[in-house]
Amino acid sequence: MNAFFVYAAVGAHLSQYSLNISDGSLTERSALTLPAGLQYAWRHATKPILYAACSDGGPGKAGTQHFVCALTIQSDGSLKLEGLPTPLRSRPVHITSDRTSQHILLAYNDPSSLSTHRIKRDGSIGEEVKQHAFDLGACAHQIVVTPDNHSVVLPVRGNDPEHGNPELPGSLEIFDYADGILTHRQKLIPNAGYEFGPRHVDFHPTKPWMYLSIERQNQIAFFELGKTVVGPLWRKTTLAQPELLKPRQLVGAIHVHPNGKFVYVSNRADGTIDHNGTKIFNAAENTISTFSIHAHTGEPTLIHTEDTRGMHVRTFSIDPSGTILIAGCMIARDALVNGAIQHVPGGLSVFRIQDDGTLRFLQKYDVDVGTDRLFWVGIVASI
Q: I want to staple 306 with a disulfide (CB 3.0 to 4.6 A). Which of 97, 112, 292, 359 is the partner?
């Protein structure tokens, strides 16, 4: 049986845990300090290597130091930085590789742009591949290669109107992809991109179906893949109580279950209200929503939402066997619990994925995030 390793980053501090798949328990094993705060990480397709996109920037902060690093996953799951970090032009918000890990691809959002780098035979990071200039709108958020390895999808979130500024529309940008080169093919902009804030996509394991989390509208959407991408054919709320929407309610990550029967979306929130002179959490939804996937049409249907017992669920991960889901609760907040104010720390919330796709809460492992954020969590299997 494969061993499963869990990685979670608070700023530049990347912790490694072992995962007991039978009971979902986590045991912290080691830690590595990265050159800057981890933004996102991606596993090589066949080698024990994790590619880490790092920056001293963050939401609302451009930063000045930006890198991508190759980390060797050793037999015990601990990580070792290999070679020197590769400098990047600005803060990377997402990293992926193509399906055979011949190249890594990075998305940036200030301003929106992308880049690709060759991966050498030994898995180390090679030279950047020159691309055309692309006009990508406001706030790119992800870059991912389709299962056939021939296309790239880049969601561009846009921004809500605020501080007297108008709404900046969102879009889904579709590219042809070959040997590290992207060629723009299609822009999907329902309603001209207004009230459309796409964040992340994931793909069905066997059908030509794509699922999108729409951050600014708290929705999931469905698309069909082909020579062109068709959709959205459905857009549905991810919230248990959309009629009780509170400020700073946003959608986060999205992942399709390995069996293709379910898709999961994180609902994240961190808004506050005044309670007798103390700022406390406003009781918006910090949950994981489970959608069943119709076997013939691909339509997602909300069947369950589960509380994460934490705040601002930015990322989560499903183990490759489809047994355990771990959600990263990014920040800490004071909250009203049973009539009393309690401090709710950041942490890792662990769930069992049941046969019907719904989640059963197992345990939350509190993490002291201090003034930083638990920004990314991932599960990988040993090779």
A: 359
Residue 107 and residue 143 in contact, taking contact as beta carbons nearer than 8 Å:
yes
Which amino acid is it at 285? E
pLDDT tens profile 128-141? 999 999 999 999 99
Cα dihedral 51→347→158→165 (10° resolution):
-130
What pLDDT digit, counting tens, does each position of 231-285 carry?
999 999 999 999 999 999 999 999 999 999 999 999 999 999 999 999 999 999 9
**323: DSSP letter:** -
What's the rounded Cα separation, in Å, for the pair 181 and 328? 33
Query: pLDDT tens digit string along 164-185?
Result: 999 999 999 999 999 999 999 9
Q: What share of the chain is helix, strand, coil (3-state, %, to 5)?
A: 0, 60, 40
Question: In angstroms, rounded to a whole number, what is the distance separating the alpha carbons of residues 119 and 234?
Answer: 37
The single-letter DSSP state of residue 47 is S
Neighbours of 364 (CB within 10 A): 18
Burial of 348 (0-12, 13-18, 19+ CB in 10 A): buried
Paired residues of 237 in beta bridges: 219
